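Researcher: Let's walk through a ligand-bound prediction step by step. First, I give you the protein sequence. Second, the SMILES string for tyrosine. Third, you return the three-dimensional complex as structure tokens. Ready?
Model: Ready.
Researcher: Here are steps one and two:
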Amino acid sequence: MNRVRQLAPARRWASSASALSSSSSSSPARNVIDELEARGFIQAVTSPNLRTHLESPSCVYVGVDPSASSLHVGNLLPLLGLLHFRARGHHALALIGGATGSIGDPSGRSTERNALSPAELATNVAGITAQVERFFSRGIEYAGRRGYDVASEPVGRPAASATAVLGARGIDVLNNHDWFRDVSFLDFLRDVGKYARVNVMMARDSVKSRLESDAGISFTEFSYQLLQAYDFATLYRTHGCRVQLGGSDQWGNIVAGIDLIRRLNVPDGAEEAADPAFGLTIPLLTTASGEKFGKSAGNAVWLDEARTSVSDFYQFFHRANDADVEKYLSVLTLVPPAHIAEVMAEHAKAPKLRAAQTLLAEEVTELVHSRAAVSRAQTVQKVLYGSDLASLRAADVLAAMEGDPRLVRVSAADVADVPVSKLAATYGLAKSRGDANRVIEGKGLRVNGAVVADPRATIAHADLIDGHLALLARGSRDIVVLYID
Ligand SMILES: N[C@@H](Cc1ccc(O)cc1)C(=O)O
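Model: Step three, the predicted complex:
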């Protein structure tokens, strides 16, 4: 089940990674930092030297803890950040926190987490690992379609010792349990804890805010920062990875890693010539009204299609507010900034057409699901919004709405000569025929887009879309699609 690459256990790790500057490969076309900055991806960097560092191919990592069995749209930002690095010729590592996920990061949380059972954790690790793999294989193809040179493997061969472990795709997915499982508690206290200063650990935002609360913080969560620091130091040693990317709440953990790398690799008393490693944080994505991005009516929007259907996923982005859509296009898609500007200018002329939201929904759905998923989602969209109904193909609707309870297959005999008020009641659009009659009287029922005037009207074959479809809609929300064989 554990499909990630196995690493040699990290027992001794005092040797430093070889210098990146010795790499003779050609540099990526454009400094990824400029691109990330232009797109509003950068909250803070740990050193101004990061830009120079990234003139040469480098290795960058992002960690994801498996707190659920699927990622949600809120996880997209760091993954897209990593994709930008890969698309600009750097080597990207996605780290699944099989070990850290059993501890729980206190960053950005006001209360202690409930520990996951080992079985839950294993399910989550498997789910998220597969999803991250899929995200990057689709992401690399998507980047290729948006004009990035991703066909060749990244020139990033940061450390001589890393050549053996860096995969040819330029993206690797690792699991930190692969090195933590061989580290004993005593090893950890001796080799890592010795370098950590408790006063510094207590001053981190994630810990400080919890120390002030009545419940305090457990020793377990307090130690989390050291685990993440150890990851960074391990990837530095095994992969020559010198850059970590994370959400803005990850600043303290990233800095803890850089401190540890420095203590382990810069001999006591030596001048710190250069930054041994770097961190870069991404701003928290919020809506214009200040809410955290990624919830739809209080529920997370998942990347797993079994949890959030492709069409709900598409609709979530299609519903983005005018005030948010430009920012989302910048950080959640690889549409070039100049094109975003054009679309926004077009959008400003006729916001009702939702040109910008359509582009956003199309791009993110293509990136996360596929191009075929975009057309399926758009078919469902036409059905739900009653737009351009005449262009619908019955077979497409069947395929796009497969498994959707709003799609009902019936025989011609089920519908022939049956008054529409009865159909509405039978298929759940009204509580009873009386209710249906009242809705029809109030001009609240439509069949294939046309308002029903007479409750006794029946649906003739000629009324069907593409010979098979009768879309019954009550108001703007409730809909039943009858597919008549
Ligand atoms: N702490 C990160 C996940 C992470 C885990 C391990 C790492 O090495 C890095 C990051 C988070 O909660 O988002």
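Researcher: And what stands out?
Model: Residues 180 and 245 are 21 Å apart (CA to CA). The chain has a mean pLDDT of 89.
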